[in-house]
Amino acid sequence: MTRRPLRAVDVLFVAAGGAVGAVLRHLVDASAPDSLFPWQTLAINVVGAFALAMLPVLAAVRRSHRVAAALGPGLLGGFTTVSAWAGQTRDLAAGGHVVVAGAYLALTLAAGLSAAALGRHLARRPEPDEALG
């Protein structure tokens, strides 16, 4: 695989996508009710893993490396959050909720990997033959 030369405009596409993703993540966090278990971060990371795996389905992503950069490392990179997941896991354990922290850690890994695998599987499915339909 050959790398494209890094250009300032490419960085701007990633930055713009990242800004939108971070705002979306903040809106999800802000709208979620308080709970011991950080459901909103779990949902964000699982949805993000699935969406990232599904990106190749979009024709615009296949045609433009800038759209791919804006949506992948940009939008979805800004939307998903490993740092919040790690911090929340640490805080749960430090607060005496070790079982909840372990469950959160395991559930996020299992659900995220499953969502990514499902998205990849769906993205690779052949399109139905239009000539038959």
Rough outline: globular
Could you say how many structural domains there are in total?
A: 1
Helix content: over 70%
What average pLDDT do the residues reach? 92
Helical run tally: 6
* Rg: 18 Å
**Intertermini distance:** 37 Å
Total number of β-strand segments?
Answer: 0
The helix/strand class is mainly alpha
Low-confidence stretches: none
Please provide the ordered H/E string of secondary-structure elements: HHHHHH
β-strand amount: under 5%
Largest sheet: none
Characterize the structure shown.
The protein is mostly helical. The chain has one domain (8-124). The termini are far apart. It is built from six helices and no strands.
Write a concise keyword list for the protein shown above.
single chain, 133 residues, mainly alpha
Question: Summary?
Answer:
This protein is globular.
Mind sketching the topology for me?
Blueprint: H1 8-31, H2 39-54, H3 59-63, H4 65-79, H5 82-94, H6 98-124
